[in-house]
Amino acid sequence: MSEKSENLVEIRHLKEYFNVNVGFFRSKPLKAVDDVSFSIKKGETLGLVGESGCGKTTVGRTILNLYKPTSGEIIYDGKPIKTKNDIREFRKKATMVFQDPYSSLNPRMTVSDIIAEPLDIHKMSPSKEARRERILELMGYVGLNSEHASRYAHEFSGGQRQRIGIARALAIDPEFIVCDEPVSALDVSIQAQVINMFDELQEKLGLTYLFIAHDLLVVRHISDRIAVMYLGKMVELADAKEIYDHPQHPYSKSLLSAVPVPDPKTARSNKRIVLSGDIPSPLNAPSGCPFRTRCAHATKKCAESMPELKEISSGHFAACHIL
Amino acid sequence: MDKKAFSAHVDMEDFIPATDKEKEYMVSMRPSTTFFKDGIKRLKKNKVAVVSFFVILIITLSAIFVPMFWPYSYDQMLGMMPGQPVDNSFLNLTPFKYGKSELSRIEAGEHIVPHIFGTDSQGRDYFIRVVYGTRISLAVGFFASIIVLIIGLTVGSVSGYAGGKTDLIIMRIVDMIYSLPDMLMVILLASVLKLVLENALEGTVLSKIGSNIISLFVVFGLLYWVSMARLIRGQILSLKEQEYVLAARAAGAGGKWVIFKHLIPNCFSVIIISTALQIPSAIFTESYLSFLGLGVNAPMPSLGSLASDALNGLTSYPYRLVIPAIVISLIVLSLNLFGDGLRDAFDPKLNS
Ligand SMILES: Nc1ncnc2c1ncn2[C@@H]1O[C@H](COP(=O)(O)OP(=O)(O)OP(=O)(O)O)[C@@H](O)[C@H]1O
Ligand code: SF4
Ligand SMILES: [Mg+2]
Q1: Residue B262's domain is classified under what CATH number?
Q2: A94 pairs with which residues across the strands?
Q3: Distance from the CA of B283 to the center of ligand 3, in angstroms?
Q4: Where are the domains of chain A?
Q5: What is the model's pTM?
Q6: A36, A217, B181, B291 — which has fewest CB within 10 A?
Q7: pLDDT tens across A42-86, in order?
Q8: B257 close to B120: Cβ distance less than 8 angstroms
Q9: CA of A49 vs chain B CAs: smallest distance (Å)
């Protein structure tokens, strides 16, 4: 029991199926997230990586109950989130930073109204003065100038917009933030700045992150542990260092081999594993292991049954038949 | 030090650190403009829209204020004086002519306001009837558009926001209404409602407005909201997928908050523009209904009923048809042009 209480967020067998229309009056479930389980400890950062369309955003949004989970459990601070009341309380502790800094800010609102929106929704500021002070404090956290407060979002650059989004997420003093590819829309030079800011904020405010990214280089710096997803399923989960040094799942290996390495010697000695073919559509995923259409080690067994996620060494989980 | 042309010699002056004042100059941004201010600026540049705006303004103001000080009223038959026989000299006066009693008063040195457009077959000052008719037409157009706006906005945003089955059902109803031949429906409804309402209204304040105008509003409320509803629904559908809506929901916002804080402000320009374009179409509908005898109740004039009445004496007094026709055209044209200008200024995306 003692181990459980230190998990801030825990999800068990989370599934999220979207009904998509195929032809007239016929719909088919799109398995965007299919049986994913993991937990995040207090103060930890879990990196979530995978190709575009593998369901990372959906995991993040389902955890925050923005999509109603098809099945599975979301446990926050030891309590399952089920009723409307749970969700309302949960919203005061968990928030999200969004992928697209352009569509995530309302063009008709000033920066101060955007940042204070969560406060206004929960009626958390006792007076105009307090509200204003809180806004300025939040803007200070993310390195925005106080003179920006009365401006509109379209007057800012992508990096500044993302800072506004982060300030909004911090407004309610959250414990847990889902960061959905917060830097993928930014220039490389700005990415580092923003990631460092996430790091500093975590230290200062004691935050817990689920940090989503589609490239391993970005999460490497900030994550304590990393989960790799493929086609709605989790294929590997381990400590950040472990997954970099000893990736086990064939998919993680290929992902890592695509990461540019600063040292040319190691770069030359690394063999790049190039995946053949495209990622299959989640609407008709392959039977058995979802990766088998592109896996160099695929056997007959891989087509027949889905490999379970099993612990192959302490704290290192992978889902593959050959491991 | 001398500098040779093309030499790579660096001028150290260029590398002096900026003073605080210079830095301040560099960081100051352009003055904050709101979306609204930007739109107004663009609108002012559009000459056609500005002219149309002033035409509408002048017509509206005179429709409101002229009847207040004009010495004649729209239903006053000038030839009828209490206790005196009917003075036929007042009937069908041509512009700037006077009736017998007026001529004698002028001779006595009195100043009489001329009948700019003459009088009609019952001896009523035609100018004030046109002005009053304009007032009625504008009011009908304006209120009908408001009704359309309220219904269309409510149905459209509920349908777009709720999505799923609700949306499907509402949109099929909209499709059904949309596919009705609207002219025919308007005439049918107006004539049925006329019978139904006439009894119900008797003795109430509403009877003065007349059952026809009320049935006109009912017709608008029943039929004309559909295109507004469709438009709004489309907007809401695309807006609700925006991440800022999700951000608000992640912060715990309910449907009301999302609709009023995010969705409606963002389709505001579309709402204003289509309402502005709805007014002329309502005026037009009112005019042709009145022309067909389904409009305002006599003696109240509207531009359409004036045109309709003028048909009787068309050969002798063609200007009685031409004048209201010109006023209708002027109103409809300038409202349309102004609406277009609004759209160009506030929704550049729509204008492709
Ligand atoms: N609301 C929805 N309705 C139907 N299908 C959806 C919906 N949202 C996502 N999907 C589908 O679910 C799958 C996973 O989408 P998701 O956005 O989670 O991917 P992602 O990993 O975040 O990708 P990216 O890196 O491009 O952001 C995709 O195939 C997508 O088409
Ligand atoms: S289970 Fe089979 S197909 Fe899937 S990753 Fe392992 S070897 Fe490849
Ligand atoms: Mg995503």
Answers
A1: 1.10.3720.10
A2: A176
A3: 50
A4: 3-93+174-318, 103-173
A5: 0.76
A6: B181
A7: 999 999 999 888 999 999 999 999 999 999 999 998 899 989 899
A8: no
A9: 21
